């Protein structure tokens, strides 16, 4: 009997291990690579490379070593890095939540909330995306071009006119945040906007960080700021509810629009958490991405006289067609074709969003390998943007490559995502970018104070010293 018990004690653990291993995909079919140290993995290496502006090389070295698909560990989770047109299609074309789901790192999820579009899937994603799109679609945004222009004009009067030197990136962040506050949140008070922006800027600092919630860490500070932002937004929602009860129009701002849908007894309604979490997402995406885009366009124009002259000619023609005090219109924006091509080429070369994540719901076969259930999939925007097999002479800045976007293969140019996952704020970003550029180009000339082309990612691109420029007012248009 003692021998039997001893055999059971010896064999039971072995049988358990064998059964567990049978549930795993064959080891030779898991992508090559290393998961590195527990929790940390390759997170610190990637973050250091991003801040040193060597992240693309860091990933290129992985591709050279392992091929276009490899395993690693990022932000505490086993991850598979995928690269190429087929990889982008895998990420963006899949709307089947039974295979792959929206998924962000634990730090992003804890800071922005689990009911934002980056986390929702299936019918929930479709429902909330539809609610946001009801305000952000072009037909709705046409009415707000003048309001956006007023914010741009006020900003230029306060921070640009009469100045010999300005630092562009922080000013662009100031501008885009004020546009968001006005158009999306309906906040007109400068003091109140300042209260929001202080907490918001602290909140986004830790979105790409190792999720260790210890005092004095960046992640800890971001979590505290996130809680304060959510409290501010809950108070704002209550105010907007009262305004709606008093007869305020539901289309006066995004929050009022979402609250109107929230109040409906229908399958399309959105919860309060969904409103707050997606407002926070829009704050992060709309504030940082547009400000980075405008900043880098100004740097491109300073470094490329031919491109600058073409943009200036286009914008001067539009300015001359307007009478004094007349606002830009939707039709004026449609005439800014070359300016928008410059913006698209800037997005190709300097994409604000470095990459993102998905999560497998079941084993996925891709590229001859198995991506196991529950693993992260990590995709990177700039890898296909700089692929010489997709874009000829990718190191050359050439807006004319966007003469016909139909000539660019699908799922190769993805600064706003693609397919059913394309960013619902695309048109909003386009409008504020074109309106801001119109006034900056027609009113000023500028020269870079730091002519180097260095930038770090933290996680957004940040040029040297925020890109200070010497300003000269234009005397005529």
Quick structural gist:
With 477 residues, the protein is α+β, with helices and mostly antiparallel strands.
Number of separate helices: 18
Task: Determine the strand fraction and express it as a percent band.
Answer: 5-15%
Q: Using the alpha-carbon principal axes, give the shape.
A: globular
In the CATH hierarchy, the architecture is Orthogonal Bundle
Mean pLDDT over the residues: 86
Provide the CATH superfamily.
Cytochrome P450
Q: How far is the N terminus from the C terminus? A: 100 Å
Largest sheet: 5 strands, mixed
> Uncertain spans, ≥5 residues at pLDDT below 50?
1-25
**Helical/strand content category:** alpha+beta
Overall number of strands: 12
Describe the fold and architecture:
The structure is a single chain. The protein has 477 residues and is an alpha+beta fold. 53% of the residues lie in helices and 11% in strands. The protein starts with a helix and ends with a strand. Mean pLDDT is 86; it is low at 1-25.
Distinctive features:
about 475 residues; alpha+beta; Cytochrome p450; five-stranded mixed β-sheet; three-stranded antiparallel β-sheet; about 55% helix; about 10% strand; globular; disordered N terminus
